[in-house]
Amino acid sequence: MTRPDQLRLLAVHAHPDDESSKGAATMAKYVAEGVRVMVATCTGGERGSVLNPAMDRPEVWERLPQIRAEEMAKARDILGVEQEFLGFVDSGLPEGDPLPPLPEGCFALVPVEEAAAPLVALIRRFRPHVLTTYDERGGYPHPDHIKTHEVSMHAFDAAGDPDRYPELGEPWQPSKLYYHMSFTLPRTKALHEAILATGAESPYTEWLANWDPARDISHRVTTRVPCGEYFAVRDAALIAHATQIDPLGRWFACPIETQQEIWPTEDYELARSLVDTPVPEDDLFAGLRSEVGVR
Ligand SMILES: [Zn+2]
């Protein structure tokens, strides 16, 4: 199933649509270069809401889980990636004060040893050289995103160990693991200023006003992947998630040409590496290409 001379990337995400908002242009670029790219989607997004006013209709709400799977299939085809659901149930984003308890049986409540098993099995089957996932804060404070981080770290360490999960296939150790650093303060500021310069209103004004600089993660970026020519593919994949993405919303406030000019990369933190690779780098496979025998 896997060719020894082919590079492989596995992107672990919490919900359908996360793959299109974090690292999508990077994936499209690597697919175009002949890399095999797999998206692992931990949950079905069953507890997501409908965030696009045009889709907020009873017949959509009635079959939201199926619709989200269909949207995922469209986005997958647009990005040119393979994709698998890991089979967990969306935890929903708890809201209120105090926060309500998480729903029984949801992904965030599954013990990590058990929650990581399907990902360990997928790593052993797909044999990725590189994994991408979220940082320890989930990149966004959703319980499923934090769980996705925990499960990814657990699986990265366990997949190569023959003593762990021995029933799940031949051990395989990925070489690198990255965190998405998609929504940094400098990037958001740059987009905000570019939008204001056109005379339009920026959807980031309130966001930036409430941004605690102590929570900025931009100093952690080690790796900036140039992928501006795939921003249109990223946007098409996002729009395929029609229940989740308002085509008139803030995702699309800054024209693609402007983004290509001011911030033509997607950014990452190299969190684990078993190969020598000096940072900063501009390629998730830096340090691996000669080892695998491809350029
Ligand atoms: Zn999500």
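^ zinc ion complex. The first strand starts at residue 8 and ends at 13. The pocket of zinc ion is lined by residues 14-15, 18, 142, 145 (CB under 6 Å).
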